[in-house]
């Protein structure tokens, strides 16, 4: 767990001009000139440890003036800089190129280009520091020296280590022509007139004395390196989209690219991809975040969704541990590798989440509906049953039929739903909810999990099991609408508190309830209108909390900000209940925000109204790229297409509601079961589908299967 999981403040900011490069479990956060400035959150991180805390390039002991940064891949960037003018010259003649590749560690190719007519004699130095701080310490600005530090250097090699509490972390920095000394690599170069000089530096992590193989070895072309091959395969084997609107096309391309970069691979099962939560601080497997991302991006890569489910199943709880909050059947919240997390936990897995467990079962239902590897999904059924046993035995501790949470110790997260900041759940008058807390959306997830399990039972020849789970879903829906609906308010309570009193804030959580289908049809119109009301809808998406609530603050983390994934789920819920115009309005707003951010949606943005500021206001500490934000444009495209798949019942549903400004759209190679399907939507809304698997039919209405309610009138 570590203090990072209970931290109640804001993450330390890297600055608006920071550059983040990511690949697998490594990432680098730097200045736009390429330097890692000591004393800041900058650094090269590997498996949750900062292996470089300082990396500053100097030419003749002078800083290099940054010119531009070109990020060609999520793991690669070219930093261009200009050396200060040479003595006796009024103009600079030496251009500095730093091409950085981040993988298991880092490779940096340094090139000096002499644009003058005389040879340039240069002394190039790299100033190096490594504090081996845990990621949480860096994120929260509480780094302090720990353990014993060591340095070793020789011809072309500088090695730094730290030993603490019986564990060793180190880094090996190597360059053939470098003169190494403590904290410094020095290169002496003479660059011919109109010529170049180049060298390469390899930075390799060392864990308990064992070097991690570098991702970008010098003897292999970069395009043949593992990250390059995986990136190329990701682009070439996935679905392709062509759309008339260039801004939307850019957003969709960027989303696919970022999701590819956020894949991490289980060291014990390197062929099993999972999706990390986000960069820079959450390059780890998260229960809730990874599951929601997998659900939203499933049509892009079903194997990523399956790998995420399989890996979370491996870490499913087996015992009761109040420190880690592990319980039998519970799906974890977060997996970490750092020394600090291990010491605080007695392990590296923390289970303090109330929603990951039902979301896990929901994902298995979607995998079934999309026809993804039926044998692999069937093998996960015992994990689904253990998850639902947790829901009913541990999740519903008081037997009232609702799942609630209360942290086991003072080390745990106080709030354990997706709004997990310390003040994320409060009443209309601003009072914080007292635990145990039963969140509205969590009851919706449990409802959808029951429906998913009913489908899985039906699909595996267990009709009595299907009926059992269907009945449990029906009873929960009935109880939920009796207890959570506030007739005097006209909306659903955000939660029930420890005294079973409604937490009566007007919040976006009820949009998740639409998404799962737990909302009664007669109450849905009021919910839809409120979600698009001026109090809730900012013009860039749906606010987490209405402007009329006492705790509203558009610059807060969860009390009035706009989270793209939250708005995406709201849009899907609106579409599910037939409120197509409402859903389209939300989708367009979020996609407009994406365009304003250059095609990449951040984790969240401030909740200021679009009429107040013509551009969305960034939230300063937001992760970017972040997994469920990256998946949101793909999810919204599915919402706008009205696309649902149910391979077991042979149905593909399409009911396009694309705004005219997006023009015609063409999708190819969309995985549906074992087939690859193509979809074309003309400007007039006409639909053509190719490649449907045998036995499937095109429909304009949802499939009447146990996982989906009958369509609601909007």
Automatic annotation (TrEMBL):
Output the superkingdom of the source species: Bacteria
Which Pfam family is one of those matched by this entry? MGH1-like_GH
Which range is the signal sequence, renumbered to this chain? none
Specify the Putative glycogen debranching enzyme N-terminal domain's residue ranges.
21-200
The ranges of region (Disordered) come to 217-237
**InterPro entries recorded for this chain?**
6-hairpin_glycosidase_sf (IPR008928), 6hp_glycosidase-like_sf (IPR012341), GDE_N_bis (IPR032856), MGH1-like_GH (IPR054491)
Q: Which residues form the Mannosylglycerate hydrolase MGH1-like glycoside hydrolase domain?
A: 289-594
Name of the featured protein: Amylo-alpha-1,6-glucosidase
Native organism is Streptomyces leeuwenhoekii
